[in-house]
Amino acid sequence: MMEIKISPQEVRHVADLARLELTEREELLMTEQLNSILSYMDKLNELDTSDVPPTTHAIQLENVFRQDAVVSSVDRELALDNAPESDGVNFIVPKVI
Amino acid sequence: MHLYALTIHELHDLLTRKEVSATEVVSAFLARIEQFDPKLNCFLTPLADAALVQAREFDQGATDAGISTLAAIPLAIKDVICMRGVRTTCASRILERFIPPYDATVTEHLKKAGAIFLGKSNMDEFAMGSSTENSAFQPTRNPWDWNRVPGGSSGGSAAAVAADLCAGSLGTDTGGSIRQPASFCGVVGLKPTYGRVSRFGLVAFASSLDQIGPITKDVEDAALLLQVIAGHDRRDSTSVDQPVPDYRRALKQSLKGLRLGIPKEYFVEGMHPDVAATVQEAIRTCHDLGAEVLEVSLPHTEYGVAAYYIIAPAEASSNLARYDGVKYGLRVPDAKDLISMYRRSRSQGFGSEVKRRIMLGTYVLSAGYYDAYYKKASQVRTLIRQDFLGAFTRCDALLAPVAPIPPFKIGEKTDDPLQMYLSDVLTLPASLAGVPGISVPCGFSSDHLPIGLQILGPHFREDLILRIAYQYEQATPHLRSRPKLVLE
Q: Which of A20, A85, B138, B389 has its CA 20 to 30 A from that of A33?
């Protein structure tokens, strides 16, 4: 029997972290699929990586900096152009506090 | 020969000799798009009117581009690349109405070179997929067999090139999304070295893997297009400040003296016999052209799928966190509070594959699991990268298949996501290592479906893989063919 990698409760927790709302059916399917995928990932444990540094960048780049100088970015009007709701100055969202 | 069937360099010759006008060229493509795209579904946002305006400007001598290699050349651009004022959807409902206020760097380069845009092409949603079936809007059909997939995620771009709906296109490759659709559609596709082409204005999927590259009718066109888009960009901090060689000049050198490695792990169990046969034949051709062929080993190849499908979704879960309905994109109205607005907008806006990868990525980065999954995968990534560096001490470049199977039928692999992921086994490792790769047509299956040869090279050796691809292509003119498009 396949070991359970992720329970339905964990799926719900992860969905919460990811700000996703899953229907009951989606939750069931997601649990099944994630379990299948995560079981496959066990394959990586075949390798001894105790002395292996992780790679986050395929090309070694270091300290790509620029001068801390203010440069123009985008016009306010353009920045608000795609706003679902705006007052011409701010993005309007449901009350936070 | 029809204008729409010509390559970029052939069109360029005709245009500079004034044997044909830009308006004639663009009109030829627009007519063909009108005729066949309703069935093929390559384009999400056609730009017919704007293209004709651009063509007219060129013909009237009103553009600065002059005789640039891409002047007046009609291209399709994958809909994950920002174009100012033009809807960019990433084939997702969450960006269905999004209009970027700026051009991607590659878009700027193309505009400066005078290229004409025929439209934004279809793709798997947020570049997540290998068949273009994950587009929220429409599945693109493979021009060679309309019941089959064009590959993905750059399926729209590859199919448009294969069907002569454009002279060339841009796609993106994170785990194979240029090389595999190029192979499935019988065209040329190149994934540059990571950092070779600016990602500024490319909607991010996996930031340590994404690259923009050309999908074209022949290798010379790929070299031309790469020439225009490659180069350092201050606005992309992962872009590398390395000089860009003359890719076209690099093509003409013979293969004599080159050592070509054949990675034994790439001839996987369960590989379709026609794929193995055509690729072996291609290897023989390269040998006949003067290259030395030797077997090499990339021992960690089989771990590529697991490593990639931890790393890419992890990065995606972070990159896609921005789609929250606040500043742009879909916002579901009447949410009772902010969190609810996020949840509803994201859940309604994202398709199931995108949700699956966000979930996977969120899980592997979460407390208690980070070391077991993400860190482990990153360590395996080092081993995979070292495999390539090791192989390149024994050979100049690698020859391999692109996909273990020819193009599959629409709907055939949508039930089991893991099966779809496993079919990426031959393209993922190069992405993880950041090395450049090109797919060039090398034959057909017994069902007359295209099969591509993959050539992988050391970092920043696009010149070398283009050269090998070009010499091979020139030696195999019998492989040059286009699908017959027939409307029922």
A: B138
Would you say residue B476 has pLDDT above 90?
yes
Mutate to test the interface with A, among B363, B380, B383, B460 (most CBs of A within 10 A): B363
Stated pTM of the model: 0.97
Q: Do B418 and A49 touch (CB under 8 A)?
A: no
* Chain A residues inside the 8 Å CB shell of B336: 94
The whole-number pLDDT of residue B62 equals 64
User: pLDDT band for position B436 (50/70/90)?
Assistant: very high
Residue B199 above 60 pLDDT? Answer: yes
Which of B78, B120, B191, B413 is flagged as catalytic?
B78
Question: Pick the catalytic residue: B153, B183, B239, B345?
Answer: B153
pLDDT of residue B269: 82
Residue A59 reports pLDDT greater than 90:
no
In a domain, B477, yes or no: no
Domains of chain A, residue spans: 8-46
Whole-number CA gyration radius for chain A: 23
- ipTM, two decimals, is 0.95
- Active-site residue, B153 included: yes
Q: How far apart are the C-alpha atoms of B479 and B385, rounded to whole Å? A: 33
Contacts of A78 in chain B (CB under 8 A): 101-102
Q: B158 in a domain, yes or no?
A: yes
Q: What is the rounded average pLDDT for all residues in chain B?
A: 96
Q: How far apart are CA B174 and CA B178, in angstroms?
A: 8
Print the domain residue range for B56: 3-253
CATH number for the domain that contains residue B130? 3.90.1300.10
Average pLDDT of the residues in A49-59: 92
Contact in structure between A41 and B310 (CB atoms under 8 Å): yes
Strands B74-78 and B168-173: parallel
Tell whether the torsion through CA atoms of B331, B334, B338 and B343 is positive or negative: negative
Residue B369 included in any domain: no
How much of chain B exceeds pLDDT 70, in percent? 99
Q: Phi and psi of B125, rounded to 5°?
A: -55, 125
Percent of chain B surpassing pLDDT 90? 93
**Residue contact A55–B99, C-beta within 8 A:** no
Evaluate if residue B168 carries a pLDDT over 70: yes
DSSP one-letter code for B140: P
- The CATH architecture of the domain made up of A8-46 is Orthogonal Bundle (1.10)
Our CA-based measurement puts residue B128 at a distance from the nearest CA of chain A, in whole angstroms, of: 16
Domain count of the fold of chain B: 1
A36 contacts on B by Cβ (under 8 Å): 416-418
Query: Nearest-CA neighbor of B37 among B124, B143, B170, B133?
Result: B143
Kindly state whether residue B391 falls inside one of the protein's structural domains: no
From the candidates B27, B135, B154, B177, give the one annotated as an active-site residue: B177
